[in-house]
Amino acid sequence: MEAPSRRAARQPLRAVGHEPDYRFSLANERTFLAWIRTALALDAAGIGVVQLLPPLGLPFARESLGIALLVLGTVVAATSYRRWGQAERALRTDEPLPHPVMPRVLAVSISALAVAAAALVVLGGFDGWGR
Amino acid sequence: MTEHEAGHPGLQRERTALAWNRTGLAVVLAGALLARPSAFGHWETVVGTGFMGIGGVLLLGAASRCRRWNAAPADTPVAAAPLLGAVSALVTAFSLIVLVATVVWVLEVARSGTASL
């Protein structure tokens, strides 16, 4: 089981299995684009936090938050094509769709960042915009 | 799959074309956010403006793909792998550039100890 699927993973996508229903391919493409937009939103949030937020009171708190968001954006952008390829491969071979780990990673990371940001605002003595 | 949907498979393409439009707009917005004047210097104006241009190309490409789709039979195979790979690589490159530049900037400020972060 392991060996054939690994061999299949090295073949070009076009040579694997059969041409799937075009609607599934298009749905997979839209899901890929949604991941790309998620990566861009994380990048934009990171840029915004670093450049537009006032300092958060604690040293490098703002920069750490922004860098964490940019790391997440980079990881999501870098893994999105692989995820699309795995789903496309599954569609072409009539296998179950893979269970990606990124949704869980993102949910946990963004929750942790939100809690950290809230704690920084409360503990760091956030004193308002531009003052 | 109802008869009605089967007769109007273009909705799939329309939704996909709209997803491309949203993505193109997101690329333009991310580029614009980076291109605005900021603490970093001047490089980000170049990278941000370039990225906005890429977003524009995506929007135009999506429009022309949609036109080609409308002229082709509904069940024409969809072959977009190189395009998706290029989009993924471009957005990854953008993220990495901003990430590395931010880290370098923070380290420089920390070493010089000038600004209060």
Description:
The complex is a heterodimer of chains A (131) and B (117). Chain A is built from four helices and no strands. With 131 residues, chain A is an all-alpha fold. The longest helix of chain A has 32 residues, at 61-92. The radius of gyration of chain A is 20 Å and the shape is elongated. Helix content of chain B is 79%, strand content 0%. Chain B is built from four helices and no strands. The longest helix of chain B has 32 residues, at 81-112. Chain B is elongated, with a radius of gyration of 20 Å. Chain A binds chain B through residues 13-14, 19, 22-23, 25-27, 29-30, 32-34, 36-37, 39-44, 46-48, 50-51, 55, 59-60, 62-63, 66-67, 70-71, 73-74, 77-78, 80-81, 84-85, 88, and chain B through 9, 12-13, 15-16, 19-20, 22-23, 26-27, 29-30, 33-34, 36, 38-40, 74-81, 84-85, 87-89, 91-92, 94-96, 98-99, 102-103, 106, 110, 116-117.
State the main characteristics.
heterodimer; A: 131 residues; mainly alpha; 4 helices; B: 117 residues; elongated; disordered N terminus
